[in-house]
Specification:
The structure holds two protein chains of two kinds. By secondary structure, chain A is of the alpha/beta class. Chain A is built from four helices and seven strands, in the order ααββαββββαβ. Chain A has helices at residues 10-13, 19-26, 49-58, 118-129, and strands at residues 30-36, 39-44, 64-72, 80-88, 93-101, 107-109, 132-134. In chain B, a hairpin with a 2-residue loop joins strand 6 and strand 7 (344-352). The relative contact order of chain B is 0.19. Classes of the chains: A alpha/beta, B mainly alpha.
């Protein structure tokens, strides 16, 4: 019943589907990989994340963006880990790409031009985490009111809000 | 995606020919508090922009302040038409984090109830969708059957809607006496009822003319815009998580996945009607093969002990006290667990930092992604068809805004 330990050695994982494609595309952009609880996570250099998505889509490896979200590891620095959950409907496989961001320069390239599905997800991250996406067509608050101050899902934002 | 191509996509009057129409947030056929900004040229929609967030309650933030087991009631309130499906997705994600196996009876009960929830959710969709189109009586028929289902949920969990019946490690309670007979009775009656709805709608000339060829979307666009579930399958993409990436025991069940090619409102209607019958098949198989045995995993540090044990045994009382006051620590890690909800891919992304409270819970709600495709479906079409399009993607605003 105990969970098998995570595999973090890139050498052991390099033949996994999708990760092998990514390594063949640009091994320099793949920072590290982790296989934990039957899920493969690949850390991609933040400046390459859009190219990685565009390449995976153009090669027909991935055809569906399931989810795009973020976790705040404050007070650790860099604090944000943006997670792209991709699904290959053809091969019935999932992969998680991750980009790590610091609090001061929380900027990423938008993948909305690659998958229009990312539009609302990126707006949500902008609204609730304060991460900016370059090249997004309409980056405005989506959940909170336009004049809201702060980004509620950041860890240094109190659960009860500011009163 | 007309409004995305504009340099400044804020809706304002572009020229004298068009006008801005505000639809919602209090509009009966937006199925909640959805606001749509429509730029219209006469009867034609030129641009559309959905505006959401009116129901935002910060559930994801609240989850971070609760113990793992305290999050279950919050998940009910996301998609209030199928609370057990949400429970299922969350508890399975946490069970994956813990590496917890649950006993077969709990697995089969979960499948059966999840399928009954799919039926009741689709019944609400069918009733409201038909009412939007103008067929009032179907609504009453659908809610008659839904009432039977709500009684079944009440019988098993004590609640009609916010059930919180699935718990981490199993189920809350053993189903009461007479429960399975009630379910069997419902499942035996149900196919005739679906025939009844189909008699009213599927052959109805007015209904067909109103839906056929309306709000079309191609399979390629549907994938790019993140459509999932019946809305995706109606565009010819044959993908169902239950069959293709089975979770929670679905590999043991045999069922067909209805697929349509046209990608219009009519195709989505046919897909969901066929799913009503398939869900009934799955629930029937689960009922017939229901194993006996415990309903909770043997993990005293995680699963609350039975009430009787707690009152008579010292250890059980200690465990009960510990779980309620301190929660249970979940090993560090992260999990994205996706299941097929009535609306599409429902995914829970749970990150644990090794403590008793989740560090991050994110819900990938299918309605949120499905809503993005609405402008693509409606732009260039008639304003009356917007209502049909909204009904056909079956959105729940609680799930969109969270």
């Amino acid at each position: 019943m105990p969970v098998a330990p995570a595999i973090t050695d890139l050498e052991q994982l390099k033949n996994r589907p999708i990760l092998s494609d990514l390594l063949a595309w640009n091994a320099g952009a793949v920072q590290k990989a982790r296989f934990d609880r039957d899920e493969l996570t690949v850390f991609i250099a933040r400046e390459s994340i859009r190219d990685a998505c565009a390449w995976l889509k153009s090669q027909g490896v991935i055809d569906f963006l399931s989810d795009l979200t973020c976790a705040d590891f404050y007070p650790r620095d860099p604090r944000f880990e943006v997670a792209y959950h991709l699904l290959s409907i053809r091969n019935k496989q999932r992969i998680r790409l991750k980009a790590v961001l610091g609090g001061d320069d929380a900027v990423l390239e938008s993948i909305t031009p690659v998958w229009p599905a990312a539009n609302f997800f990126e707006r949500e991250l902008f609204d609730l985490f304060g991460i900016r996406f370059l090249g997004h067509p309409y980056l405005r608050r989506i959940m909170m009111p336009e004049d809201w101050e702060g980004h509620p899902l950041r860890k240094d934002y109190p659960v009860e809000g500011y009163r | 995606m007309g409004h995305l191509n504009q340099a400044n996509p804020v809706l304002d009057t572009a020229d004298d020919r068009t006008m801005i129409l505000n639809m919602g947030p209090q509009h009966p056929s937006t199925h909640g508090v959805l606001r749509l900004l429509l730029e219209i040229d006469g009867e034609t929609v030129v641009r559309m922009m959905p505006d959401i967030g009116f129901l935002h309650t910060g559930i994801e933030k609240t989850c971070e302040a609760k113990f793992y087991q305290q999050v279950v009631p919050l998940t009910d309130r996301i998609d209030y038409l199928c609370p057990m499906v949400n429970n299922l997705c969350y508890v399975q994600a946490v069970e994956k984090l813990l590496g917890l196996e649950i006993p077969p009876r709990a697995v089969w009960m979960r499948v059966m109830l999840a399928e009954l929830q799919r039926i009741s959710s689709h019944l609400v969709w069918l009733g409201t969708h038909a009412m939007d189109i103008g067929a009032m009586s179907v609504f009453l028929y659908c809610f008659r059957e839904r009432e039977d289902l709500l009684r079944i949920y009440e019988m098993v969990s004590g609640q009609r809607m916010m059930t919180s019946y699935f718990r981490i490690g199993g189920l809350a309670l053993e189903p009461p006496l007479g429960f399975f007979e009630k379910v069997k009775d419902f499942l035996d009656r149900f196919p005739d009822k679906v025939d009844e709805y189909e008699d009213l709608l599927t052959g109805n000339r007015i209904f067909i003319d109103r839906l056929k060829g309306v709000a079309q979307i191609s399979g390629e666009d549907a994938l790019a815009f993140g459509l999932s579930g019946p809305s995706l399958r109606a565009s010819g993409v044959d993908f169902d998580i239950r069959r293709d990436m089975p979770y929670g025991g679905y590999e043991k069940f045999r069922f067909k996945v209805p697929v349509q090619k046209d990608g219009d409102v009519w195709a989505r209607y046919l897909c969901r009607i066929a799913e009503l019958r398939e869900s009934r098949e799955i629930a029937k198989q689960a009922l017939e093969g229901m194993p006996s045995g415990p309903i909770k995993a043997d993990a005293p540090k995680i699963v609350l002990p039975d009430r009787e044990k707690m009152k008579t045994q010292m250890e059980a009382l200690i465990y009960h006290f510990k779980i309620v006051t301190e929660g249970f620590a979940v090993p560090e890690g992260e999990v994205y667990h996706a299941i097929e909800s009535p609306r599409g891919e429902m995914g829970y992304y749970v990150v644990s930092d090794g403590t008793a409270k989740p560090m991050r819970v994110h819900m990938r709600s299918p309605s949120y992604a499905n809503l993005q495709a609405l402008p693509l479906m409606c732009e260039g079409k008639l304003i009356a068809d917007v209502v049909a399009a909204i009904g056909s993607i079956d959105i729940v605003l609680g799930e969109i805004d969270r």
